[in-house]
């Protein structure tokens, strides 16, 4: 697996040489954290996207009992991607992550970009869904996405269509499963679709008002015996306390999401609500869960958040000046994985997260998060942990992008 990933990555790096036709001068330069090689006419381009995230977390609980996860260090991400554009009409990406001494393929896709403000993409990529999920990990305001993120299906192999204008975005796609899914089980892949729309009636460099909507409909994965599980945490080092366990006899499930976000110069806010509905077979009662998050961010000096209408998401904070940029943020998030009528007691959790980010330059960021989690009496990790055991977490990240 590792050899295949490395060979594929090398082939993408060399692709402009192999398929470029006539020899062409390529300028190499640095652009806001990326190493870029671009033709004179700008129609052929490729660039490297690398990121290293090293985390430390200290976790304590009210009970003082062992949580199954010790405080300490971890390599959260060590990722390398090559992204390409050929002749101004075709684009592609290959992205792999090395963490826990294992290689995992993330994005690999090709797309046609020859139409104005349009991308048609095929390959392994994220299903159109919530703003938080689609935002790159290198640009997240907090170290991890919120508790609500359990409802997102992530990356799958499929085809999608994106189109945008000055103040709107529409996205849709039809997807199977992750790479190699279903091969060992000898079953057909589960299929589904994702839709997302965003509207920004105010969209300037300093002021943004964003509304969004998403809807996903998927079948349980091949080989899952028609079971679906939701579980979540707000730091990768944490245990997954709210956990539904395997809910059986599921024919399909739907995820509905709404988004509200905005910016006023140095101040910004972002919020989402998602609801999951499981349709079950053989007379089993349907199940429903939901969650939300909301946060506010303030950058007192050095820069501000950037918004992109072509993806309906937030991008980099590019610091200005020798002091870099400082960001303060506060987030509240909730997930409720209880549905007593359906016999599911997955637990409910509320989190408050305080974040402090220092952007030293376009490449270096240091992050501090303090997380206070309040678990209910059913949040026991499907029986693996003590119920109603509230957590205090202190976490830091050292992030390098290149």
Per-chain topology:
Layout lengths: L1 H18 L6 E6 L2 E6 L5 E17 L10 E15 L3 E10 L2 E11 L5 E9 L4 H4 L20 E10 L3 E8 L16 E12 L3 E12 L31 E15 L2 E14 L6 E15 L5 E2 L4 E2 L10 E15 L4 E16 L4 E12 L15 E11 L1
Antiparallel strand pairs: 1-2, 2-3, 3-4, 3-20, 4-5, 5-6, 6-7, 7-8, 8-9, 9-10, 10-11, 11-12, 12-13, 13-14, 14-17, 15-16, 17-18, 18-19, 19-20
Protein model, in words:
There is one protein chain. The protein is mainly beta and 402 residues long. The protein is built from two helices and 20 strands. The longest helix is centred in the N-terminal third of the chain and has 18 residues, at 2-19. The strands form two sheets. The protein has a 16-stranded antiparallel barrel with strand order 3-4-5-6-7-8-9-10-11-12-13-14-17-18-19-20. The chain has a two-stranded antiparallel sheet with strand order 15-16. It has one domain (2-401): Porin (Beta Barrel), CATH 2.40.160.10. Residues 1-20 form the signal peptide. This is Porin. Keywords: Signal.
């Amino acid at each position: 697996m590792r050899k295949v990933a490395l060979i594929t990555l090398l082939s993408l790096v060399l692709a402009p040489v192999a398929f470029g036709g006539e020899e062409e001068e390529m300028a190499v330069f640095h652009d806001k954290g990326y190493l870029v090689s671009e033709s004179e006419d700008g129609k052929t381009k490729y660039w490297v996207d690398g990121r290293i995230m090293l985390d430390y977390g200290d976790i304590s609980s009210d009970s003082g009992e062992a949580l199954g996860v010790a405080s300490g260090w971890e390599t959260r991400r060590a990722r390398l991607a090559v992204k390409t554009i050929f002749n101004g009409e075709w684009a592609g990406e290959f992205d792999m992550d090395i963490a826990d001494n294992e290689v995992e393929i993330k994005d690999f896709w090709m797309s046609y970009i020859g139409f104005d403000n349009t991308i048609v993409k095929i390959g392994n990529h994220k299903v159109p869904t919530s703003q938080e999920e689609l935002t790159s990990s290198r640009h997240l305001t907090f170290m991890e996405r919120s508790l609500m993120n359990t409802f997102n299906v992530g990356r799958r192999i499929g085809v999608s269509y994106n189109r945008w204008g000055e103040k709107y975005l529409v996205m849709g796609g039809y997807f199977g499963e992750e790479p190699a899914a279903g091969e060992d089980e000898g079953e057909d892949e589960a299929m589904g679709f994702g839709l997302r729309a965003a509207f920004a009636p105010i969209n300037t460099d300093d002021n943004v008002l964003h509304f969004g909507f998403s809807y996903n409909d998927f079948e349980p994965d091949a080989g899952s015996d028609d079971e679906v599980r939701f579980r979540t945490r707000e730091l990768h080092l944490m245990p997954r306390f709210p956990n539904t366990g395997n809910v059986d006899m599921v024919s399909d499930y739907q995820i509905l999401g709404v988004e509200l976000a905005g910016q006023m110069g140095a101040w910004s806010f972002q919020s989402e609500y998602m609801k999951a509905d499981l349709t079950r077979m053989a007379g089993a009662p349907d199940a429903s869960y939901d969650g939300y998050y909301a946060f506010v961010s303030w950058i007192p000096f050095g820069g501000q958040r950037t918004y992109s209408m072509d993806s309906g998401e937030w991008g980099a904070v590019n610091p200005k000046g020798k002091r870099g940029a400082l960001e303060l943020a506060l987030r509240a998030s909730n997930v409720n994985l209880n549905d007593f009528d359906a016999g599911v007691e997955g637990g409910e959790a509320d989190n408050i997260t305080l974040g402090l980010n220092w952007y030293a330059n376009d490449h270096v960021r240091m992050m501090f998060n303090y997380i206070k989690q309040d678990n209910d009496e059913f949040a026991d990790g499907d029986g693996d942990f003590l119920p109603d055991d509230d957590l205090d977490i202190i976490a830091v990240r050292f992030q390098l992008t290149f």
